[in-house]
Amino acid sequence: MVPREDGKAGSLERSNIVLIGMPGAGKSTVGVVLAKRLGLAFVDVDLLLQSRHGRRLQDLIDGAGLAFFRTLEEETLTSLELAGTVIATGGSAIYSEAGMTSLAASGRIVFLDAPLAALLHRIQDMDQRGLVIDPGESFADLYARRRPLYQRWAELTIAVDSGGIEAIATRIVNTLKSAGPAQE
Q1: H or E stretch including 107?
Q2: What pLDDT, in 10s, does the model give residues 59-102?
Q3: pTM of the shown model
Q4: Full residue range of the structural domain in which residue 29 is found
Q5: For 53, how many CA atoms within 13 A lie in the half-sphere containing its CB?
Q6: Structural domain includes residue 71
Q7: What's the distance, Cα to Cα, between the start and end of the chain in Å?
Q8: Is residue 110 a contact partner of residue 19, using CB atoms and an 8 Å limit?
Q9: CATH no. for residue 86?
Q10: Burial class (CB in 10 A: 0-12, 13-18, 19+), 51
């Protein structure tokens, strides 16, 4: 790993595009379109977690608790050895310093920034979605707690409050091009 001026990790090859953001921001949906458009592979970390452990996210959280789920998520994030891949993280990935450092070393982190009202409209199945949320915490509380963490880790921020999936993917591609090559 090579340190960068902003303190985030880098590597000799940062060829991945890592999507972070709240549940409902479109990480998985946009990620598939973005990967197809750029000719890259696509990995959804939530699906990878479910596949590795043979259970739905919500079942993992309900059965083992939030702390254990976060440990499983961190292990998954730090074990990824990918190049040329669009990676859609789970919304709670930003709680893992080791996981996010590993992701930052392998690619550019793009925050899909959606306003709270849009997220609430998009997410109808919060109880079944596998949200990493503390008991008694509202979705608005979760949003307020996570947003600064997304901003901290983001190399690029893309507003996803308007336009369809294709338009958002286009904004990401254009922003990546205008930002230039990934910094070491």
Answers
A1: strand 107-113
A2: 888 888 888 999 999 999 999 999 999 999 998 999 999 999 99
A3: 0.88
A4: 16-177
A5: 22
A6: yes
A7: 9
A8: yes
A9: 3.40.50.300
A10: exposed
